[in-house]
Structures are given as structure tokens and as C-alpha cells.
Amino acid sequence: MANRPERETSRANKPQLSLHVPEPEYRPGSEEVDFSGIEIPEAGAQPRPDEACDPSETVGLCTDLIRVLGDDNKAHGPWDPKLDPDTLREMLHHFSLVRAFDERMFRGQRQGKTSFYMKCTGEEATSISTAMALQPDDMVFPSYRQQGVLIARGYPLIEMINQIYSNSGDKLKGRQLPIMYSSREHSFFSISGNLATQVPQAVGWAMASAIKNDSRIATSWVGEGSTAEGDFHAACTFASVYNAPVIINLINNQWAISSFSGFAGGERATFASRAIGYGLAGLRVDGNDPLACYAAERWAANRARTNSGPTLIEFFTYRAEGHSTSDDPSGYRSANEREAWPLGDPVARLKNHLIELGEWDEDRQAEMDRNAAEKVKKDTKEAEKNGILGHGMHQPFHTMFEDVFDEEPWHLREQNEESQREREKKYPDGVPH
Ligand SMILES: Cc1ncc(C[n+]2csc(CCOP(=O)(O)OP(=O)(O)O)c2C)c(N)n1
Ligand SMILES: [Mg+2]
């Protein structure tokens, strides 16, 4: 009793508490967008520790920004991956293809051929350049904006379009939201709409790979907004505790639909610095610098592959377009942000680098872009032969209940039979399919 503090009777003299609600700097109508507060270090100025280093040696890199391509379009410093011109042109070709693909699929949605599409404009390097730094059979657990990974892995565009149209050629039989691809052959795990679930899955897969003494590593991609989910933090803990051979790619494109990065904790600390508390190696990378993206991913892959530890990489970038075809960003952010973004456009930066090397020119670029658009157009037409959204039911109805379990359990069989009975009632003149 004696130690109990006296009960307060009045709070009148106490400071009033207040809640901080983050607010983005610019909203629609902001004419002057000024990103000069973002610190952009010199390309080539960041140290490159040994891939097998202790995570503590990467602490400085969690607040720095790894950059290779300078304003002079040349590659600089210890992170220069020294890729040969053919590899750089291959990367540029994937960039060109993904941009043409995004354009056409976006238009397809507007024409009613599919219900949904998501572009990755401005973020191409975070999926294409990183995928190129991995082995083709490393397992990837992507989010929904990594179509570049599939394109870099040579997945047929026509299969992607079939899935987007949910048509009779769709290998996923219309069961997934458009763009939520899956390909076992391309070591590409099924995309889930439940944000961040892919991160613990990647860590778990990596742990299993280690348990089996396999040599394949796992990688995951997660948006900065999604890191506010508990799954992300559980995944970091498991990755660190078991030294899982995994890379967590955190794509900080500043926006999570209409919420800015401040709502996921971006105001107080960089996203890469989450790594420090978990004992993970952490890197913060210019996500619009294709060479830096490649180099960082390769560093982390080599580290994982040699049991040296997992890595969290923040790719600092900007979502140049709307969140999806269901979104209109002019309702919540300034239209001038895209132009003002200080890290430029990844496609233009790679193109200019190749030109600077004397290995490319504008005419060849125009031809590459034309060919990419032609290829996408041709494959779209081909896929359309398998049907588009709303033009009939492209998959037999009963398939809805199949393939989840090896053997259909009794309760699904019951539901399947009931659904057939309902349909017979609804369509007395003959059930479609
Ligand atoms: C668990 C969960 N919460 C919310 C949503 C709705 N949602 C879909 S995308 C999205 C924004 C995610 O933003 P971010 O992680 O930054 O990825 P980005 O879209 O920028 O690539 C939200 C809130 C969801 N799909 N799943
Ligand atoms: Mg985001």
C-alpha cells in the first residue's frame, strides 16, 4: 500500500496527447512538386561489402542508396555488375516487351476483354533486372506487379493473356483473378491477392530447400504498403532465426493504392532498415537503376546460395501509373509527381547507358519497341481465339471444385452435386457446359 502512487484527481496540468496521422506532401492540385528533400547520393559512392559479411556491415547501406548509373549514363563504382552489351540489350528487350504488354492489356481492360489489369510502369527494373540476376530455377514468390519476372524467364505471353482473359486456354481454369499467374515450370509460385502471404511462404520454401540440402534459393517481392502486415514481420523473424536462403525484395514505390508510404512506417525510418532489427543483411537500392537492381540481387543471391544468410532489399522507386485499372490516382496524388521523380525512368536509363557505350541507338530502340508491340498484338489476337471475358463460360462449371485436393473430399463432392442440381433447375432447357 505504501508504495502505491497517489491517485490522480485532476489531469488539468498534463500535456494533452495527440495522434500523428501521416499526410503525403502533395495532393491533387499541388502544382509545385519538389522532391529535392530526397537524398540522392553519387552513383558508385556506396561500398560493396563481401557477400558473406556479417549483417552488421550492411547497416550503413540500409539508409544509403546503392546506385551504379550516373547522370553521365556511365556505370560507376564497386556495384557495377559489368554486364556485357548482349546481356544489357536482352534486359532492354524485356523492358520493351513488358511495357508493350502493359499498354495492350490496359487497353484490353478498357475494351471489356478482361475485368482487371495492373501495370508496372516505372518499376520494370525491380522485377526484370532482379530476375536476370537469379538462376532460372530459383523459386520466386511474387506479388501482383512482377509480370517482368515471367517475361524475363521466357514465359509465353500467350499464356499470360489466356490467364488475363480467363478463357478456354487459361491453365488456371478461370479460378484466379486476372494477372494472378502461376507456373510450376518457371518456378513461379501462384500469386495471391492476400497481401504479404508470399513472404513467409518464400521463407518456408527456402527453409525446406535447406533442410533437403538442395541448392535452390527462394525470393519474394512485397510492396512497401504490404510490409505493414504481420506476415512480413513473421517472415523476417523466421528468415533470420534459421538463416534461410532467401531474398526479400521490398518494392517501395511510394504508394499503396491511395495510401502513401508513410502509412506503412516510411516517415520514420527507411524500409531497408527494418533488416537491422531482425539481424538480416539489408540493402537500399535505386530501383530505377537497372544495373544497381541486378547487382544487389546478385549479391544477395550469392549470399543465400553460400549459406551466408538472408537479405532484405528495399528498391526505392515510384509507381508511375495508377494502382490498377480500378484506380484513378488523380483523386489522391499530384499529377506532377511522376515527372518530378528524381530517379528517372529505368527504361530510358538503360537505353541511354547502351547508347553511351556505343552499343545502341535511337533507331534500333524504335525498331525494338515496334517489334515488341507487334509481338504483343499477334499473341493477343491468338489468345482471343480462346475467348475473352463475358463471351460465354470458358471452363466447364464443375472444374471449379477440382484440383485443390488430390482426391475430392466428400464435402466438395456434395457441393459440386448440389451446384449441378441448382443449375439444372435454373436452366431447364439445357445447362451450359
Ligand atoms: C491483406 C490485404 N489487405 C488489403 C488488401 C487490399 N489491397 C490490395 S493492393 C493494396 C495496396 C498494396 O500496396 P503495396 O504493398 O505498396 O504494393 P503496390 O500496389 O504499391 O505494388 C491493398 C491495400 C489486400 N489485397 N490484402
Ligand atoms: Mg507500394
Automatic annotation (TrEMBL):
Residues in Dehydrogenase E1 component domain copies: 97-388
Signal peptide extent: none
Basic and acidic residues composition-biased segments: 1-11, 408-433
Gene3D superfamilies assigned: 3.40.50.970
Keyword Oxidoreductase: yes
Start and end residues of each stretch annotated as Disordered: 1-31, 406-433
Single Gene Ontology BP annotation: branched-chain amino acid catabolic process
Coiled-coil residues: none
Database matches in InterPro entries: Alpha-ketoacid_DH_E1_comp (IPR050771), DH_E1 (IPR001017), Oxoisoval_DH_suAlpha_N_dom (IPR022593), THDP-binding (IPR029061)
Alphabetized UniProt keyword annotations: Oxidoreductase, Thiamine pyrophosphate
Cofactor(s) listed in the protein's UniProt record: thiamine diphosphate
Enzyme class: oxidoreductase
EC number of this enzyme: 1.2.4.4
Family that this chain belongs to: Belongs to the BCKDHA family.
Function as written in the Swiss-Prot or TrEMBL entry: The branched-chain alpha-keto dehydrogenase complex catalyzes the overall conversion of alpha-keto acids to acyl-CoA and CO(2). It contains multiple copies of three enzymatic components: branched-chain alpha-keto acid decarboxylase (E1), lipoamide acyltransferase (E2) and lipoamide dehydrogenase (E3).
Protein name per its UniProtKB record: 2-oxoisovalerate dehydrogenase subunit alpha
Organism expressing this protein natively: Alteriqipengyuania lutimaris
